[in-house]
Amino acid sequence: MRAALRPDRRLPFGMGTVVMVVIAAMVVSIGAVLAHKSDTPQRQPYGFGQLRSYAGGPPDTAWTRGIDDLPGFSSSGGSVTVADTHGGTWLLAYPSGLGRAFLAVDRRDGAPRWDKPVTVGLGSCAFNGVGQVACAIKVGNVPDGYYLVDEGSGELGPAQPLQDTGRMIGVGKDFIRVDQLGYRVSATGPDGATRWSRTFADSAFPSYLAEADLVDVRLADASHVLVDPHTGDTKLSCGPCTVSAYPTGLAISHAGDAGVIDFYGFHNGKLVPKPTHTSRSMTVFGGPDVLPVVGGTGLATVNQTHGRFEVRDPAKAQGLWSVDDDELSKARPMACGKLVAFARKDGTRDVMRLDSKGTVVGHLPANDRQRPDTNLAELRCVGSYGTVIVAANDNQITAFDGDTGKIAWEFPINGTASNVAGHIVVRQGATISLLR
Asked: Which CATH number covers residue 319?
């Protein structure tokens, strides 16, 4: 460093030339990046119950879409949902005709990005990992088929075979398709070429685990098959079971009285097929959250005088930390995003961070019996940010700040609240709203 900064080191040309060369190189590099769409699966930075900040009082309604401003909305019933997202574009689905219609909108203001919606009837639409949209249309407003949709206008490309597709999700640059009966699952490229196809014994409901590049196929008999999305090969299976996914691995809870949980880790973006740890007589609490919170279940808790809980990293053999206090309640903890609230026997709650150390964030007072909408034990996790847990029922969204020990804000609703890419989305009747 000292040699490079010595004033007697002279360049063979002027500094202006250097600056111009650097700028030109940057422009070329940036242009190459923008011109090439990576097919690397996009991981969701606000998954696992993590919210963007909603500090500063109650949120505002950024936009609302519904029956009055969505073309072809059917008044026969149903509501609007966010079917999929890619960056700043959201794909709304709503009842139309004999089934549903899909419309791409700008996440910031809800303005349509397409000239008109795509009416799919009994089919579906989805983004893949590089932002392309494909739609399977059955009994829609065009001949049945599988179509690639122009990202800017919403115009349909040439029709490919439908393969009786009823549901679909995007994985990498491909699409995972499920037929109308739900038994056949296949992977198809944007051009309609089939990569692989499998038939299961029960109806299949696939979801994508981007952290390990796996498709989790949940079957109607409560079993799960974890599939390589590129080949269709089975990487892991269980049943009946529950698969809970986290940024670093999986917690697979096997059905039965034994309370067996197998933990599996991810390494370099792939599932390690050998369990890192097996817990017995335990159950996984909470969610969505970034780390599993486990505690005793069934007969294991009968003789306990207080609560005992452990936080684990699925990728590690040893637990991260545990709480074992004579004044700790055995009531179910609220694990939400990067925070967890443990109930105490006096009704108060200790709020801790779901990290490697279990950092104490603060405390929440006992429930106000006169205000059931703020009873954390009866609410669903929406997500968390900073030291704030956001939870909701069908009447109200409530933000609890562990740092101050107070309610940070409240927002009345008449419907449901969910976390979509870190944003709070509210569905009320035939409308959907984004809170900012």
From this structure: 2.40.10
